[in-house]
Amino acid sequence: MKSIKAHSGMRVFFTLIFAVLLNAMAWSQVLEPVKWSFSSENTGDNEVVITFKASIENHWHLYSQDIPMAPPATTFFFEGDTSLYELLGGVTESEAVEEFDPNFDMVLKYFADEAVFTQKIKLLTDEPVTVKGFLNYMCCDDTRCLPPEDVEFEFPFNGAVTETATEIVDD
User: Fold this and answer.
1) What is the mean pLDDT of residues 123-150?
2) pLDDT exceeds 70 at position 99
3) Helix (H/G/I), strand (E/B), else coil: 57
4) Between residues 68 and 21, which one has the greater pLDDT?
5) What pTM was estimated for this model as a whole?
6) In this structure, are residues 170 and 40 in contact, taking their beta carbons and an 8 Å threshold?
7) What is the C-alpha radius of gyration for the chain, rounded to an integer number of angstroms?
8) 11-29: pLDDT as tens digits
9) Could you count the other beta carbons within 10 Å of the beta carbon of residue 121?
10) 115 near 56, Cβ under 8 Å?
C-alpha cells in the first residue's frame, strides 16, 4: 500500500511540474506584431525607388517618422559606400493616423494594418552598388510597447551580390 501512495504522489508532482512549465511556455511567446518586406523598382536614368513595407497585426501601431521624439519614431539609416549613390530627398511614408496616444500621453502619428516607406535613389555608377543600412522602429498596442528594434536591409543594383538574406522583391 505504501508504494502505491508514493507512486501516486510522484504522478501528481510530475503533473504539477508539467502544468507549470506548459503555462510558462504559453506566457513567454515572442511578440512580433510588425513584419517587414522590401522591394525596389528601377525608374530609369539610373534612378531607383526602394520600398519598405510593414504589415502590422490588429490592435498594434507602428509610429511615423514625423513625431517629436525617437523612439518611438521610425528612423532610417543608410550605411556603407554612399559615394556610389545619392539619396534624392528623404524617406516618404504612407498616410498616418494622428491622434492621442495613451502610451506617451500626447498626440502622435502612427500606422495601423500597414505602412509603406519609400526612398528615391540616384545610382552614380554602372558598377555593382549595394544600398544598405537599417531601420529602427517601435510598436505599441493600447496597453504596452515593445522595445525599439533594428531591421537591416540591403538592396543590390547593377549585379551586386548581397551579404545578408533580406527579402527583396524586384518590380
Assistant:
1) 95
2) yes
3) coil
4) 68
5) 0.77
6) yes
7) 24
8) 544 343 433 333 333 344 6
9) 22
10) yes
By DSSP bridging, strand 168-170 and strand 34-44 are parallel
CA distance 163 to 156: 10
In eight-state DSSP terms, residue 82 is G
Cell of 122: 540616384
Angstrom distances, CA of residue 137 to CA of 121, 123, 125, 163: 22, 27, 31, 23
Query: What SS3 class is residue 40?
Result: strand
Whether residue 61 is predicted with pLDDT greater than 90 in this model: the reply is yes
Given this model, what pLDDT does residue 162 score?
Answer: 74
69, 55, 96, 87: CA torsion to nearest 10: 70
- Amino acid at residue number 94: S
- The whole-angstrom separation of Cα 167 and Cα 156 is 12
* Residues listed for the chain: 171
